[in-house]
Amino acid sequence: MSTALSSLNLQVPSLIDGVNQLATGTQILNGKSDKLLNGMTQLSSGSNKLATQLNSGANKVNSNIGTPNNAQMFASPTSLQHTSTSTVPNYGHALAPFAMATGLFIGVLIFTLEFPANRRHKTPRDAVKVLNEEFKRAVSVSLAMVVILNMIMILSGLKVDHIFDLFWVCLIYTLAQMAIMQFLTLIMGRLGTIIGLLLFVASIGGAGGMFPMQVTNSFFNAIHPFLPMSYAINGLRQAITGGLGNSYASINALVLLGVAVLFYLLFLLAASTLIKRDVLVTDTKEITQEI
């Protein structure tokens, strides 16, 4: 009995501590009771308001006459409008700008391979005359290629939104490529055609004609702005299917025109240097005899 009382006496401090904690908790609960009561009041008020609004909405819905228009409004509360900025009938129309730019570039490569601009002559002449002869040859050949290619494409079923832009972009692009190739063959001969071929290979991947530039690697994205074919494809897309802006084709054509002017100026400078060294041909009659 004495042992039990001793054990009980030892637990008295713990019991007192628990009673004190209970009293403290009761005081905290009593202090928060006002906030709890306020929250319950707000919850009750909100529940009543929700029930009232739902009942009011249900009454309004029930009061509506069940017309087909009302049924359509409830079935499709929103409407979707679709506007097309351009129409691409099929994959052929989407690929046509790349195919046309590629065909014209190949034509330029073949022409400059057969008629390089660095032919030799014993009596040198004025560089302006050399440029004039090469430019007239470039214009005539470019115009013939553009007319033949565009007529074949149109007769094959290509639908063109802006026919003038189609011929304008093609002609300026061909002249730009012709200027580049004539300059390269002037300073390097047939080796310049090899450089042009490398430019053609780079254009296949970097001009954005087959695949969007967003899915092309960083190298082709880096050279994309420097390739004339990039601007030709952009301009031809606007000319064929539209949707890119009325001035978009002209802007790209002006860039190509700048490329042509730049390389013909370089051609003039190189021709002047080569004439001074007596290593340039300008007499077309003697060229024919040498060939």
Automatic annotation (TrEMBL):
Record keyword Transmembrane present: yes
Membrane topology classification: Multi-pass membrane protein
Keywords: Membrane, Transmembrane, Transmembrane helix
Organism superkingdom: Bacteria
Compartments, as annotated in UniProt: Membrane
Transmembrane segments: 94-117, 138-160, 166-184, 191-211, 253-275
Glycoprotein as UniProt keyword: no
NCBIfam families in alphabetical order: pip_yhgE_Cterm
UniProt protein name: YhgE/Pip family protein
Species the sequence originates in: Lactobacillus jensenii
